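Weekly modeling sync, notes
Attendees: AB, CL, MP (scribe)

Item 1: holo prediction request
CL wants a bound-state model with magnesium ion before deciding which constructs to order. AB pointed out that an apo prediction alone won't tell us much about the pocket. Agreed to run with the ligand included and paste results into these notes for async review.

Input as submitted:
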Amino acid sequence: MNKQLRRAAYRTGMFLVSIALVAVFWELYKVVGPEKGGKLFGVAILPRSNDTAMPHLWEMLSRYAEPEMRGPHSRQIWLVVLQGAWFSFRLALVGFVIGSSIGVALAALMTRFKTMERGLLPYLVVSQTVPLIALAPLVVSWGGKLHIFGFTWPRWLSASVLGAFLAFFPIAVGTLRGLKSAPAASLELMDSYAASWKQTMFKLRFPAAIPYMVPAFKLGASGSVIGVVVAEISTGLKGGIGRLIIEYARQATGDPAKVFTAVFGAAGLGLAMAGLVTLADVLLMRNRPKETTT
Amino acid sequence: MSAVHVAGVSKIFNQGTPKQVDALVDVNLTVEPGEFVSLIGPSGCGKSTLLRLIANLLEPTTGAVTVNGKTSAQSRLDQDYGMAFQQAGLFDWRSVAKNIELPLELKGWDKEKRAARAQEMLELVKLPEFADLMPWQLSGGMQQRIAIARALAAHPPLLLMDEPFGALDEMTREYMQGELLRICAETKTTVVFVTHSIPEAVYLSNRVVVMTPRPGRITEVVNVNLGANRSEDTRAADNFFSGITAVREALRGTHADHANAGAVRGVEDR
Ligand SMILES: Nc1ncnc2c1ncn2[C@@H]1O[C@H](COP(=O)(O)OP(=O)(O)O)[C@@H](O)[C@H]1O
Ligand SMILES: [Mg+2]
């Protein structure tokens, strides 16, 4: 237990150090980088280091405490970003739940039927090469046409569906690998007890799959956030962090620090989702041998 | 009624393909209730295959297997046997007690009954205070004892073991052999035991079944029977050594089967 705590502390430390390194690099580049950007063989490769393109970190941070817009009734920006993040978080959570249900169901199906795996897996791989930006408007228009049993498709659900679209794939693949990781001897043992497929699934395959499922679910969690944010941006859905990013990006010339407040909000959102999975990981793996705890 | 009856059984893997393996050919074996029978032979002679046929984890290509007078399929459904492998194969995510309860859980026993039986089994393998530990906190020998407890949890009349002590060090191994004999005597369990250790087979068994590979078959059955009251002293006794010699010669005879005159071998042994 003590060892686990130390490892957690070490990881947190490394995380903070890596953030600090990025911050130092950012400020360093502002000192040494070319003001108007750098060109190599006529191609712009070095970003501009001026305050419009790369505002100072302290400007970004202090921007949080200032009002969103000029005017008497404007709220402070940290509150706006937090509310946007919370809105997107809920959409991402819905997408994550849908995506992981589909991913786990597909993995179970592919474990049950070998032909399923051979027939389905290539399509799953291809599905991930469809660009999200192209898919987003399609999903919105399909959803808009859906009216079943008095159910009208809310616009936000399209964003969740796109989150699910990015989340399900790593989850399906990771869970499939995990379900297949149960040792042959253990499967034989279950057979010798004449265990049913369902019993073998829930008492052996799924518990054995958890070490594989956790990293897959982490990928899926960040996938659901990316899906939702990109969907918000490309469909112009109001209320979320994606919308804030495009809005603030338009104001970047006059208020360069503003857009970064929203970008960090999106990053925090991804971390919060991954944190949820880590929490589940710690709970599920607390009694396992230490080597397999990732 | 025999505990195990194997009649004219062959097992051919990948029949009719270039990868065809005649794992077992015309095997006949009867094990009586309460007997301890070992299967011994070089690797690849079909010991595990024969055990899996008895367990109904494989279907014979020809012939029939009955366990407790039922088809092997029926006796698997009825959990008439318990099984233990070289790797203890305990589930990491279950406590020791919960591992022992696994077969009972699958049978639908209720919670109190399961817990009581798990405790009874822990007493049997002399690890009564280990119920709440996790398997990985136990030594290899202890894990194997838990695996035996799990195999016997439903009180099956038959125990099938495939090199269960193969991964243990020599000291632990001898201790486990003594424990296994005690446990089987207490529970009156019939055992079919796969090993490739001659002393182990002789020390444990009433009969040692000697097998040869390519194609896998039974070449000889050696009666050893060191008596009911075996102890560590038995390992120094004359009849222990003569048993070892008998099994060794049976094994060697089968090795030289094609080169030497089999008839001469046969005369020597009888
Ligand atoms: N599932 C299988 N498919 C094909 N060949 C197998 C299979 N299982 C065992 N064999 C072959 O059958 C022979 C006997 O194997 P096995 O019973 O495991 O031997 P032993 O346990 O005596 O070492 C070996 O040649 C092995 O390669
Ligand atoms: Mg074997």
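Recorded for review: Residues B 13-14, 21, 23, 43-49, 216 surround adenosine-5'-diphosphate (ligand 1) (CB under 6 Å).
Action items: CL to compare against the apo run; MP to circulate these notes.
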